[in-house]
Design a protein that fits this description.
The complex is a heterodimer.
Chain A: H1 3-17, H2 42-56, H3 66-70, H4 74-84
Chain B: H1 2-15, E1 19-21, E2 36-39, H2 46-53, E3 57-61, H3 63-67, H4 74-77, E4 81-82, H5 89-104, E5 108-111, H6 129-137, E6 141-149, E7 167-173, H7 182-197
Parallel strand pairs in B: 1-7, 2-5, 2-6, 3-4, 3-5
Antiparallel strand pairs in B: 6-7
Helix pairs in contact in B: 1-2, 5-6
Classes of the chains: A mainly alpha, B alpha/beta.
């Protein structure tokens, strides 16, 4: 479990989506990002995917079914980014 | 050619006293500038009626309709844009890019932000996509409230259960509204226009 990466993703979510009323620490790492969780929508997912690509060089090119799963929570997203980013 | 075919089809329904619009089918409207037309969606025929009503519009359609062989690939032939509801992030990106491109070429976009037919009771949340398109392209949104009385070909009504009286179709077009950019701006516009178009609950 990469808590540093999770923290970075929490900050990225707030910055990229300009969430004015949410603090990075306030995003639960296992809470759903969409719907009843953080309340993000599909346009937010697109913005977030672009931000992740710029920050980590990880291009989220999911199969049609994988998209919602990758964005299930900060923890799941961190695992995806960790497993796909280039090793320095 | 397509619009002529749709007009003939709707004219046939009117002649059979099944479905009638409150305006002559030959009266079409051309938006004065590219815009995003957003409507509530009470009836299965909404898309056809709107395509006859407005000239030079391109419709956002569900991916399943876009790919469906049942409508003979018409959506593809007409240059409609798949709305990317397959859960893929890239599908949404394609939708936004294609829609902004069409607007830059002078077409208008027709969208049903509920992404499915309106329910008989309550309302479905509007999606933000059409408003994001308008903000990115710098074009206004024109809200159009449509009503079908009695409700016909609604989501909860089987196709074969047509009403015994002729269904009357009316629409109310609101003035163009600018959509501010950014997440907050598009979310606010989505909510404002949903409140404007909230359909009146009608008995089945």
């Amino acid at each position: 479990m990469n808590t540093e990466l999770e923290g970075e993703l929490q900050r990225l979510i707030v910055e990229a989506l300009m969430l004015e009323d949410v603090a990075p620490d306030g995003i639960e790492v296992e809470a759903p990002l969409f719907g009843e969780g953080l309340g993000l929508d599909s346009i937010d997912a697109l913005e977030l995917a672009i931000a992740i690509e710029r920050r980590f060089g990880v291009k989220i090119q999911p199969s049609e079914e994988a998209g919602p799963k990758i964005f299930a929570s900060v923890r799941v997203l961190a695992q995806y980014v960790d497993s796909h980013r280039a090793v320095p | 050619m397509l619009r002529l075919g749709l007009r003939v089809f709707l004219g046939l329904l009117a002649a059979l006293r099944l479905f009638k619009t409150e305006w002559r089918l030959s009266e079409s409207v051309t938006p004065t500038e590219p815009c995003v037309i957003v409507c509530n969606h009470p009836c299965l025929l909404d898309t056809l009626v709107m395509m006859v009503r407005f000239r030079d519009v391109v419709c956002l359609v569900k991916q399943s309709y876009y790919d469906s062989p049942l409508i003979f690939g018409l959506a593809k032939l007409c240059g409609y844009i798949p709305a990317g509801h397959d859960g893929s992030v890239r599908a949404h990106e394609r939708m936004l890019t294609e829609a902004v491109d069409r607007l830059s070429r002078g077409y208008s976009i027709l969208a049903f932000p509920e992404c499915r037919r309106s329910t008989m009771v309550g309302r479905l949340p509007f999606r933000r996509g059409p408003f994001e398109i308008a903000a990115r392209a710098g074009v206004p949104v024109i809200p159009v409230q449509v009503a079908c009385t009695p409700r016909t070909l609604a989501r909860e009504i089987p196709l074969h259960r047509m009403p015994l009286v002729c269904a009357r179709y009316s629409m109310r077009q609101f003035p163009p509204q600018d959509v501010p950019g950014g997440r907050t701006g598009t979310k606010a516009a989505t909510q404002t226009i949903q409140n404007l178009l909230q359909p009146v609950t009608q008995a089945p």
